Amino acid sequence: MRKLCKTIVLVGMMGAGKTSVGRRLATALGVAFRDADAEIETAAGCSISEIFERFGEPAFRAGERKVISRLLREAPHVLATGGGAFMDPETRGHIQDTAISVWLRANVDLLLERVKRKDNRPLLRNTDSRTALVRLIAEREPVYAQADIIVESDEGPHDTVVKRIISALQAKGELPNDGAT
Ligand code: S3P
To answer: Which segments in the chain show pLDDT lower than 50?
Structure first.
């Protein structure tokens, strides 16, 4: 089996399934899984909500940039990023230069349904979640569309999304046809 040559970076909105799909994709490919948000929390010693509250969004973005840059230097793996990471020109450039980016595209109803389950997203606090998501989608989708691979993330099982990503990687020649088995 040929090894994965580049890290696969999952990008997309909050609730698109980056962490759940990423974990399963990493298992299917036999590589490590990293979650940028979790790594930021470990590095800061507090939660993302606390970072936003105590230091503000710019400080969070600076930490995010640093952590993702470090993770991109690790051996090829699957990396789930927070929804705003790919919007940062420096981080996006770094991903485009060194990794394969995959946008998990999902519609607003599905995103809303998923983000409602947890109250851990500072950008959706004290505001109407649908309005905030619609605004972020309009702002971000043209940028997410620059990803190397675009895959639909829908209500179905996460494993279906994993299969779509693997097929797209194979079609691009980034993975041999037996790469996931
Ligand atoms: C953010 C998404 C979150 C987290 C932070 C900011 C965003 O990650 O990084 O709350 O700007 O969309 P998820 O996309 O994993 O929820």
So the answer is: 1-2, 179-181
Contacts of 129 by beta carbon, 8 Å cutoff, 6+ apart: 112, 115, 116
Distance from the CA of 94 to the center of ligand 1, in angstroms? 19
The DSSP letter of residue 4 is P
Distance 62 CA to ligand 1 centre (A): 14
122 lines ligand 1 (CB under 6 A): yes
Ligand 1 touching residue 11 (CB < 6 A): no
Sheet containing strand 99-105, edge to edge, reads 33-35, 78-80, 7-11, 99-105, 149-152
Asked whether 26 and 165 are in contact (CB, 8 A), the reply is no
56: which residues sit within 8 A by CB, 6+ positions away? Answer: none
Distant-in-sequence, close-in-space partners of 125: CB < 8 Å, separation ≥ 6: 49, 119
Instruction: Please state, in angstroms and rounded to a whole number, the distance separating the CA atoms of residues 51 and 47.
Output: 6
* pLDDT attached to residue 118: 87
The CATH class of the 7-168 domain is: alpha beta
**pLDDT tens per residue, range 102-117:** 999 999 999 999 999 8
